[in-house]
Amino acid sequence: MPNSSSHVDEARVVDDVPTGLFIGGEWRAAASGATLNVDDPATGKTLCEVSNAGPEDGMAALAAAVEAQAAFAAMAPRDRGEILRRAYETIMARIDDLALLMTLEMGKPIAESKGEITYAAEFFRWFAEEAVRIDGGYAVAPNGASRFLVQKQPVGVCLLITPWNFPMAMGTRKIGPAIAAGCAMVVKPAQQTPLSMHALAAILDEVGLPKGVLNIVTTADAGGVMEPLIRDGRARKLSFTGSTAVGKKLLEQASEKVLRTSMELGGNAPFLVFDDADLDKAVEGAMLAKMRNMGEACTAANRFLVQRGIADAFAAKIAERMGALVVGRGTDDGVQVGPLVDAKGRDKVVELVRDAVDKGATVKVGADPVDGPGYFYRPTVLTDVPLGARLTHEEIFGPVAAITVFDEEDQGVAAANDTEFGLVSYLFTENITRALRVSERLEAGMIGLNTGLVSNPAAPFGGIKESGLGREGGSVGIEEFLETKYVAIGFGG
Ligand code: NAP
User: Fold this and answer.
1) Which residues contact 142 (CB under 8 A, 6 or more apart)?
2) Where are the chain's structural domains?
3) 7-265+468-485: which CATH topology?
4) Taking the alpha carbons of 275, 277, 278, 280 in that order, is the dihedral positive or negative?
5) Which residues line ligand 1 (CB under 6 A)?
6) H or E element in which residue 261 lies
7) Are 136 and 151 in contact (CB under 8 A)?
8) pLDDT digits (tens, 9 = 90+) for 405-459
9) How many CB atoms lie within 10 A of CB 51?
10) Catalytic site residue 130?
């Protein structure tokens, strides 16, 4: 298979990325001199080493953010917006190199990396426009004796923690509104995929973000570096995207100094297909909801719940589509499915599929290992999946479609809601009454109605139940980074 990116290009994009910690506007080595390896999940080979922050570096980053906070809060909103706008334009101008870099460190096919980078940049464009729309209010008290002045102010220094599955977009979704609102920040990217975040920081620096506003601490000791920062109290906001287990731990730490928190946590998305669905539309939506990012997405369809009348046709079509997908290194031409992020992620998928088959599921396609280096898993379709199988309760985070049949609407809705998660639910039906009725009954922060994609920078993204707190994106996204202050104005003579 021809290789669409040359080794020269690959070496160049990796060499171009700063590998230090970004603190106070300077790239520097960790105080200990330690480094960590960034590996290519398609080959298992090391791409480069980056500085590995320790608690001392974390504290230096926090101090730099604290120092930058007041001046940044005072910067004109239009100027903050224009920084974001310039960053958006620079990212889009460099999308080819940034996509190659992302594919190398994370594995997704180049086309998907470009999709993520566009999505990531759009958060900057959106929040560039929101920066100048922060408003307040003025009102007469009901008894007429006083006036209320309501204003919005930046929440202060923020701690932002992001996962490896969308290495740039999960960052811009937080960094964009933080800059728009006037907050300085310390960002901790996932240790497996720090390069996209480093490249983003270099762009923000280049387009004029004041020094100290953005600080990046890449580390192999996430807890050791971040816990003292969370407990310190000078940062006033913690925004986290990652697993529910870690999110719960961070909420407990944040409670000590009562930090504002936003938690974008795990999902277990049901994908409901009713007999009255448009089959082709449902299959298209299913491929998108399942296979975006190789299934390594919090929004990934985890459980396909299909009504009996359409179940066989749906399973046959999905199996055909999944079986035809081209698996390989994300940099190669024509590849549609890259490797999973690491051996642990791949082994978990193997285990979940084995458990489902042991409990009675039927393999329609896939479920066999892929030889060679890298952490590949073949797209898989399972039918007759019993509701007790582990993959109906745990995030699969891989290219496995697990199908369970239901008969009545109530049964389908009950099965969909039978989870502690509540991020997104997908629903396919051509019956408008059912569409609205079931949408209301599904316990999720987001519903994909006849679509397999809900993510959009202009829409409020987030979950209920154990999928999280708060919303990112949309017009509410900036509110997470603002405090409301009310001034009571005496009006007596
Ligand atoms: P994770 O293990 O929770 O890690 C997420 C981030 O938290 C990483 O940067 C990680 O650092 C850091 N971290 C881990 N332990 C920490 C600690 N004790 N203190 C502070 N930071 C800590 O999750 P993941 O496996 O990387 O990401 C996948 C999860 O994210 C899935 O559950 C997925 O559903 C969820 N997710 C949710 C959304 C959403 O918007 N709701 C979006 C994307 C992903 P290291 O990686 O360096 O250990």
Assistant:
1) none
2) 7-265+468-485, 269-456
3) Aldehyde Dehydrogenase; Chain A, domain 1 (3.40.605)
4) negative
5) 161-166, 170, 188, 190-192, 222-223, 226, 241-243, 246, 249-250, 264-267, 298, 395, 423, 463, 468
6) strand 260-264
7) yes
8) 999 999 999 999 999 999 999 999 999 999 999 999 999 999 999 999 999 999 9
9) 27
10) no
